[in-house]
């Protein structure tokens, strides 16, 4: 199954219109979860309210590192997706509702480094150059408006190559992307961002690529650094 097909099936199976849990990748040393999974209204906090709290912390606590030993991650990809609306409340397209720039409605950020014991560890390789490729598909809401479903196949729209300085820092690489959107009578669009590592800054010999805390979410949820404050309160 292709990765884009997997995302369509994931949206339908788990009824999620965002990368709010396990992140799909082509290669990783272990499973990685998005920041969205750990925020106050994310699934992780729900698990912590159950009787098996300690078991949940052991299984899913701080699984936020994209660590890749294979070729230091060069050529490997990570996928994130989210929705936006190009229609009004009646589900009809109007020029006023069209999203002009994805930067206007979404935040995207991650730490181009990894922490060990809450301190930056510079032993790991970091991303030097990243390709961000966008795909879009429309979604509909089915089962009495209770469930999300991708209405058509994801189509590639545009790619951007982005370079980062050789220093451990939080990066905000959301391109100034004008989404294609839809004029169809559907609630909105799901977009996928495929992040492909093109080059890395090598770290200490034998250490993998490592980046963490990938976040893609609506701007009205707050700035990245503010959202991060929610994930450590367990």
Characterization of this structure:
With 234 residues, this protein is α+β, with helices and mostly antiparallel strands. The chain has one domain (3-231). The chain is 15% helix and 35% strand. Strands 1, 3, 7, 8, 9 and 11 form a 6-stranded antiparallel β-sheet that branches. A 4-stranded antiparallel β-sheet has the order 2-12-4-10, with no helix packed on it. Strand 5 and strand 6 (119-121) form a beta hairpin. Residues 91-96 have low confidence and may be disordered.
| Beta-strand percent range | 35-45%
Shape: globular
Output the number of helix runs.
4
Note the quaternary state here. single chain
Helix amount: 10-25%
What does the main sheet amount to? Answer: 6 strands, antiparallel
Mean pLDDT: 89
Order of helices and strands: HEHHEEEEEEEEEEEH
Given helix and strand content, the structural type is alpha+beta
Unreliable parts: 91-96
N- and C-termini, Cα separation: 36 Å
Summarize the structure.
The protein has 234 residues and is of the alpha+beta class. Helix content is 15%, strand content 35%.
Which SSEs are present, and which pair or pack?
Blueprint lengths: L2 H12 L9 E2 L17 H6 L4 H8 L4 E4 L8 E8 L21 E6 L2 E3 L2 E3 L4 E17 L4 E4 L4 E9 L6 E2 L16 E14 L7 E10 L5 H8 L3
Antiparallel strand pairs: 1-3, 2-12, 3-11, 4-10, 4-12, 5-6, 7-8, 7-9, 7-11
Q: Which terms summarize this structure?
A:
234 residues, alpha+beta, six-stranded antiparallel beta sheet, four-stranded antiparallel beta sheet, 12 strands
């Amino acid at each position: 199954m292709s990765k884009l097909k997997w995302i369509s099936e994931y949206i339908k199976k788990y009824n999620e219109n965002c990368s709010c849990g396990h992140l799909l990748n082509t290669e990783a040393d272990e499973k990685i979860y998005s920041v969205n999974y750990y925020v106050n209204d994310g699934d992780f906090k729900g698990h912590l309210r159950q009787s098996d709290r300690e078991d949940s912390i052991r299984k899913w606590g701080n699984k936020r590192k994209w660590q890749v030993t294979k070729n230091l991650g060069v050529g490997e990809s990570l996928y994130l997706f989210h929705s936006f609306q190009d229609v009004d409340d009646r589900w009809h397209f109007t020029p006023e509702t069209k999203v002009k720039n994805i930067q206007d409605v979404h935040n995207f950020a991650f730490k181009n480094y990894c922490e060990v014991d809450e301190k930056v560890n510079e032993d790991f390789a970091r991303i030097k150059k990243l390709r961000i490729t966008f795909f879009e598909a429309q979604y509909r809401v089915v089962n009495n408006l209770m469930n999300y479903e991708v209405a058509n196949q994801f189509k590639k729209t545009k790619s951007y190559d982005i370079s980062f300085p050789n220093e451990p820092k939080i990066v905000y690489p959301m391109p100034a992307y004008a989404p294609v959107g839809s004029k169809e009578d559907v609630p909105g669009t799901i977009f996928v961002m495929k992040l492909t590592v093109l080059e890395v800054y090598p770290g200490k010999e034998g250490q993998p690529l490592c980046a963490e805390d990938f976040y893609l979410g609506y701007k009205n949820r707050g700035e990245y650094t503010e959202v991060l404050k929610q994930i450590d309160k367990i």
